[in-house]
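User: Hey, my collaborator sent me this sequence without any context and asked if I could get a structure. I don't really work with proteins. Can you help?
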Amino acid sequence: MTTNPNLWEDSAKQVMTPEAFAYAKGGAGAGDTIRKNVDAFQRWSIIPRMVRANTNRSLSVKIFDEVWPAPIAVAPIGVSKIFHSDGEAGVARGAGRASLPYVMSTFASTSLEQIAAAHNSTTPRAIRWLQLYWPQKVDHEVTRSILNRAKQLNYTALVVTLDVFSMGWRPMDLDNAYLPLYLGLSTALGFSDPVFRRKYKENHGMEVEADVFKAAMEWEETIFPGVAPAWHELQFLRDEWSGPIVVKGIQSVIDAELAVQAGVDGLIVSNHGGRQYDGAYGSLEVLQDVAQAVGSRTQVFFDSGIRCGADVIKALALGAKAVFVGRPVVYGLGARGEEGVLHVLRCLLAVSYAEPHDSVPG
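Assistant: No problem. I've predicted the 3D structure and written it out in structure-token form, which is a compact way to encode the shape of the chain:
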């Protein structure tokens, strides 16, 4: 697999099914937000600094109570088995072999337990978080069960996604009539949850496997209730989760301030990689303002638009404590499974380690 990040997408396209590739590449509406995410990085340039006495240097960073070897983590990526049979387990192993944190998606095609086992098999210091499409008050009992399972498996932080309370309008998937959820390909978290399974059987008199489509619809209605949460509702999660809580989907200083007032431990400046709403800012465009406004009071992270190591450097220079990488990891997985994930992460680390610079507009 090439070391050129501009060719990773093509490497994946050559071997993935057209439907799976479109699912990975596509975004909301006309794709304007995806383009702006990438273009935003081109408006900043790196200034190489010389004679800086940096022979002994380290990329390590302390995030909450954990030390990451580098300020890079694998973003929550759902339905990974459609990209490659290695699925989330392969991504978790690739992240672990690169000594980088992994964030599990609510939309995973592999269970909490299987992912934890795969991740633990690579390193004794595996750091993993859980991303939650929050069922809110629709079903606190299911939420509580998921959180308890995650705590027992040493998922140390909770990432609450704010920008998905209903599915986005994604033409590439709609034109392909391809919605993996309804095929049961993104339901592992729910279908493996004892409380969800019990309640489904009580309501329908059958196991989830008896009618996957029907059960998938119920899982969708549980995690995507169609109603945006209110900030005060985060208190339920605070009461149920003892670790850090990070909210994902912040795109304005106003919302960043509200998140801090709600008591979150961190926030991710993100627009869901352009997958959820069209016509928005490029995520990097708002990072600096958010970091300057709240960075002294909470941890500020970033995703949406990172394609190479230089992008990582720019996001860090503009105020991110660490970044989460999505599509490049998907393309690595699609191209070569676990080995492709590891390859992409090693390439990002190589560039990030080699180029500790300042970043300026222009």
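In plain terms: Residues 355-360 have pLDDT under 50 and may be disordered. You can pass these tokens on to your collaborator as they are.
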